[in-house]
TrEMBL record:
Gene3D superfamilies: 3.30.70.100. This is Antibiotic biosynthesis monooxygenase. The lineage of its organism: Bacteria, Pseudomonadati, Pseudomonadota, Alphaproteobacteria, Hyphomicrobiales. It is an enzyme of class 1 (oxidoreductase). Its EC number is 1.14.-.-. Residues 1-79 form the ABM domain.
């Protein structure tokens, strides 16, 4: 399993616009081989920004790389950069190979 994350430093006054873009976009991730799950995370507030992270789970790193070269990727990102800046700089990518997973077998 492979987890791909992008960290975004969102300008405080642009949180709503940033969230609306993510909540309304057609990601087409469910069309791509190896896609397991996606989460958009809102994190801590800092002096000049709020930290967000996109968190995508893939069957393999190869599946993730194939997605970045796909028509679905191009379609999902076609309007990137067309709006006024909502973040402080570019997102910071982090990729992780999963070495252990523990799941709750008795959720309440």
């Amino acid at each position: 399993m492979f987890i791909a994350m992008n960290r975004f430093k969102v300008i405080k006054d642009e949180q709503k616009a940033f969230e609306n873009i993510w909540l309304s976009r057609d990601s087409r991730l469910d069309e791509v081989k190896g896609f397991i799950a996606f989460h958009m995370l809102r994190g801590p507030e800092r002096e000049d920004h709020v930290l967000y992270a996109s968190h995508t789970v893939w069957a393999t790193q190869e599946d993730f790389i194939a997605w970045t070269k796909s028509e679905q990727f191009r379609a999902a990102h076609k309007q990137a950069g067309e709006r006024k800046p909502l973040t402080l700089g570019h997102p910071e990518f982090e990729g992780f190979d999963v070495i252990q997973t523990i799941e709750n077998r008795h959720p309440k």
